[in-house]
From TrEMBL, chain A:
SUPFAM superfamilies hit by this protein: P-loop containing nucleoside triphosphate hydrolases
Family matches, as InterPro entries: AAA+_ATPase, ABC_AA/LPS_Transport, ABC_transporter-like_ATP-bd, BCA_ABC_TP_C, P-loop_NTPase
Name of the protein described by the UniProt record: ABC transporter ATP-binding protein
Pfam family, one: ABC_tran
PROSITE patterns from the UniProt entry: ABC_TRANSPORTER_2 (PS50893)
Key words, A-Z: ATP-binding, Nucleotide-binding, Transport
From TrEMBL, chain B:
GO cellular component term, pick one: plasma membrane
Region (Disordered): 624-651
Entry-linked PANTHER family: AMINO ACID ABC TRANSPORTER PERMEASE PROTEIN (PTHR11795:SF445), BRANCHED-CHAIN AMINO ACID TRANSPORT SYSTEM PERMEASE PROTEIN LIVH (PTHR11795)
UniProt-listed GO biological process terms: amino acid transport
Location within or outside the cell: Cell membrane
Protein name per Swiss-Prot or TrEMBL: ABC transporter permease
Family (UniProt): Belongs to the binding-protein-dependent transport system permease family. LivHM subfamily.
Residue spans of biased composition, Low complexity class: 624-638
Transmembrane helix found in the keyword field: yes
Source organism of this protein record: Acrocarpospora macrocephala
Length: 249, 651
């Protein structure tokens, strides 16, 4: 088994009386694409934010390569290789795409080993922004904008990239492009943790999924197994959706 | 011990007035995120109106009412005529407030003169209890201020208007969806806040005299209280104002009156450093740095190399031509002065153009540089090089400290902290008389060193030296932007939280930017000392810092902007033969007009005008034209971007 990059132990997040995440144990292993799925309000995004220190957990611990990092500052975690790109984080919007990537490249941690595939023109080609390099980031259509967001995160040379709903609002074509990009990233050695609503995307792309329901972890395993789990179908997918997916695959 | 009782009583009375000011500030801020710098001047206006009416024989009550109405009306006018247009950008609103402050100050001076005046007390006499004397007037102020604040509480909590105000405060969009007229609520908040300032003014005037230029000082006190309580938090204000009022009275009573400003500015800086959300705010503010991001201003190169070169040459030659053309040495020394200003503007640009943080502390940094050099030269007699060698690192440290405080604050707080820093430095130079000679100023006993055969004793050689430094600062800034550090700062400007999330130490970057700005500022400050040969604290006061901000905004983001704008700023009033008060009035008006009409500044507006003219003249379908517009070239030259279409429809 490959190295565990990120581990959350008993991660609990409370907002007042609401328990958004309830003692969730989760890990991300190097080289995989881990998906976190679950119905609306099941605490997926909250879990991701807790793991990435954007909103540290109320209880429980987060460990990065075996070292406890609970409550670390976001920038410190990023310098250690864990970068989160959220869908509402947006980009460096007032500058051109070229400049935005240059800015991101400059913000990367000092002394970190630089992956040649994630620098300069190769990064641009990887995220498919060649055609819009001189466009203002704020003028980009959503699909490009998401890829710029991922490009900016990649420029920080992450070992693990956490993505919060990267496919939200994208059309089918843009979603397929996103999937291709993430699969390429995995091949390049960037581990990906992803939360999204698009089941087709998640099932076809992830190596492993964790299903959350009402803040608790329900099941985890390979997506093809998980979607057939009766508990998952009952809690989340609904019978008809489950059969629809089966028919598809 | 009995004296303590007296101080406590006086402190509580003063605090009730500060509470009125702070409630007004927070009422407006809560709804609009706007800090209105002219707010304190509304207070001054009320004092003058009340005094005039009472002198004319009007009873106190009616005079006070009229003053309150006058303040409310001016608040209403300023909202309807000015702030309404900057609601989507509180940042511009803040600068408009500065402009309005300058205008109202000079107008007050023109109408009522420069003397400090007080309002005759409403009630005479008082009661003694032990050694403590309770003047009836002070009791009245305390009771009235308490009643008004309590009434406001009830209004906000119980009435329909209050509910609408709170709804607009919580979420303007949602409030307008359920039928709240948010625009009217903003007007209500402005009028009510200004009227409160008017009432506070009348009361304050019965306690101590007020002059035409006291508005800026009063607003800082109001801010100190509002910050202590947490901006937008009405219940915290009452506690905060009592703390502040008593603290201030104790400082004045047991220390010296000159120490009060240290207390005011110290409170602002310490509170922001320790508890950036205010003492009584449970949750720290979450809004991101109140910084200018480019907001869609394209940085795409639109000009050919030749044009850029010509522009650069014009920018270098313009000051030289003007210096050589103006015949008299008086005007020449003004051109020299304007270049000295420009150096400070470039120093500010090192922070503003990179991080987007607007700092009103350039005067403070320059003062650290100039005064440390002055002390070295006057008291130790070590000469120019030692002065420079000491002044630059000292100012870098001061800048870094300022940057440290700034990096701790978010939102509007950081503007306040820079303002407080600047005011604090001025106060130090005023108070440390042994070193700085206080108001009388330091007179430099020596001149610039001889380099080779150049002696730098005449205006011309000094001018070229200063110009060289200004050009170095300008080109240095241009060279600095594409460096790794420069880009990191651009990341802070464009999206601070994103920069942080990909690993940038944002705080450290800001400290670095301010330190760099301090270095440039120090060199300019030392040159100021050695060319002007005399420095006084007011050379670097808050007004000076505001002037530097005005020039930067006037000039806009461009290489030549600061230099051109400085010359306009320094020479124009001289050519028009304006006295300082008229100058201040003019600059206030100018600042407001620039923000409303040319928000990107004067020089960029000229450049844009030139670009438009050129594209009108050259209508050829150049293939680069599509790429030039900052969009992906979607097709041939005939393809027009949506914004082009809109532009054509407008014209």
């Amino acid at each position: 088994m490959s190295e565990v990059l990120l581990r959350g132990a008993g991660v609990t997040v409370r907002f007042g009386a609401l328990v958004a995440c309830d003692s969730v144990d989760i890990h991300v292993a190097a080289g995989e694409i881990l998906g976190i799925i679950g119905p609306n309000g099941s605490g997926k995004s909250t879990l991701l934010r807790a793991l990435s220190s954007v909103h540290p957990p109320t209880r429980g611990g987060v460990f990065w390569r075996g070292q406890e990092v609970t409550g670390w500052k976001v920038d410190k975690l990023a310098r250690h290789g864990l970068v989160m790109a959220s869908q509402n984080q947006m980009v460096f919007s007032g500058v051109t795409v070229r400049e935005a990537l240059a800015i991101a490249h400059s913000c990367r941690p000092k002394g970190k080993r630089v992956d040649e595939a994630l620098v300069g023109e190769r990064l641009v080609a990887l995220v498919g922004l060649d055609a819009v390099l001189d466009a203002l980031a704020s003028d980009l259509p959503l699909g490009y904008l998401r890829r710029l967001g991922i490009g900016i995160a990649l420029a920080a040379q992450p070992d693990l990239l956490l993505l919060d709903e990267p496919a939200a609002g994208l059309n089918d074509f843009e979603t397929r492009e996103l999937k291709a990009l993430l699969l390429t990233l995995r091949d390049l050695g960037v581990t990906v943790g992803i939360v999204d609503h698009d089941m087709t995307l998640m099932v076809s792309m992830c190596d492993r999924v964790v299903v959350l329901d009402a803040g608790k972890k329900l099941v985890e395993g390979p997506p093809s197994v998980v979607v057939k789990d009766p508990r998952v179908i009952e809690a989340y997918l609904g019978t008809s959706m489950g059969t629809a997916l089966e028919e598809k695959s | 011990m009995d004296l303590l009782m007296q101080h406590l009583f006086n402190g509580v009375v003063a605090s009730s007035v500060y509470m009125l000011i702070a409630v007004g500030i927070t009422l407006v801020f809560g709804l609009t995120r706007l800090i209105n710098f002219a707010h304190g001047q509304f207070l001054v206006l009320a004092v003058f109106v009340a005094l005039d009416l009472i002198t004319a024989g009007v009873p106190f009550v009616f005079a006070a009412l009229a003053a309150v109405v006058a303040a409310g009306v001016i608040g209403w006018l300023s909202e309807r005529l000015l702030f309404r247009f900057t609601m989507d950008n509180p940042y511009n609103g803040l600068i408009i407030g500065l402009g309005l402050l300058l205008v109202l100050e000079s107008a007050a001076f023109k109408i009522w003169g420069g003397f400090q005046v007080g309002v005759p007390a409403a009630l005479d006499g008082g009661a003694g209890l032990g050694d403590t004397y309770f003047a009836w007037n002070r009791v009245l102020v305390l009771v009235m201020a308490g009643l008004v604040t309590a009434g406001l509480f009830v209004l906000l909590a119980r009435t329909k208007l209050g509910a609408q105000l709170r709804a607009a405060h919580e979420n303007p969009v949602a409030a307008s969806h359920v039928g709240v007229n948010v625009g009217r609520m903003v007007t209500v908040a402005f009028v009510a806040g200004s009227a409160l300032a008017g009432l506070g003014g009348v009361f304050y005037g019965t306690l101590q005299p007020v002059g035409a230029f006291d508005g800026a000082h009063l607003i800082l006190k109001g801010f100190a209280v509002a910050l202590l309580g947490g901006l937008g938090n009405v219940s915290g204000l009452a506690k905060a104002s009592v703390l502040y009022g008593i603290g201030e009275t104790l400082v004045a009573g047991y220390g010296r009156a000159e120490y009060v400003p240290f207390f005011t500015y110290g409170v602002i800086i310490v509170v922001l450093l320790v508890r950036p959300g205010g003492l009584f705010e449970k949750h720290p503010p979450s809004d991101s740095t109140f910084a200018r991001s480019s907001r869609g201003v394209a940085h795409v190169r639109r000009h050919s190399r030749v044009e850029t070169l010509l522009g650069g040459a014009a920018f270098v030659l313009l000051p030289i031509v003007i210096f050589e053309a103006v015949g008299t040495s008086r005007l020449q020394s003004l051109v020299l002065l304007s270049v000295l200003y420009a150096i400070q503007v470039y120093a500010l640009a090192y922070v503003y153009e990179t991080t987007g943080v607007l700092s009103i502390a350039q005067g403070g940094l320059m003062a650290v540089g100039a005064y440390s050099a002055g002390v070295i030269a006057v008291h130790l007699g070590l000469g120019f090089w030692w002065a420079l060698l000491v002044a630059v690192p000292l100012t870098v440290v001061a800048g870094a400290l300022l940057g440290l405080v700034v990096s701790r604050c978010t939102g509007h707080y950081l503007l306040l902290v820079t303002l407080a820093f600047s005011a604090l430095v001025t106060q130090v130079t005023l108070t440390a008389i042994d070193l700085t000679n206080g108001d009388n100023g330091l007179i430099l006993p020596e001149s610039l060193p001889v380099i080779g055969s150049i002696t730098f004793t005449d205006l011309r050689s000094q001018f070229y030296l200063v110009l060289l430094v200004a050009l170095l600062a300008a080109f240095g800034l241009r060279r600095f932007k594409p460096t790794r550090f420069g880009r990191q700062l651009a990341g802070v400007r464009e999206n601070e939280s994103l920069a942080r999330s990909i690993g940038l130490r944002v705080g450290r970057a800001k400290v670095g930017a301010f330190a760099l700005s301090g270095a440039v500022s120090a060199v300019g400050g030392v040159l100021y000392l050695y060319t002007q040969t005399v420095i006084v604290p007011t050379s670097f006061d808050t007004i000076f810092s505001i002037k530097i901000v005005i020039i930067l905004i006037l000039g806009g983001i461009s290489l030549a902007g600061p230099l051109v704008a400085s010359m306009v700023f320094v020479l124009l009033p001289e050519l028009l033969r304006l006295d300082p008060v008229d100058q201040q009035f003019l600059f206030g008006v100018l600042l407001i007009m620039i923000i409303l009409l040319l928000p990107h500044g004067l020089v960029p507006a000229l450049i844009t005008g030139y670009s438009t003219l050129r594209s009108r003249l050259i209508r050829t379908g150049h293939p680069a034209a599509a790429a030039d517009s900052g969009r992906p070239a979607a097709g041939g030259a005939d393809v027009r971007s949506p914004s082009d279409l809109v532009r054509e429809e407008i014209s």
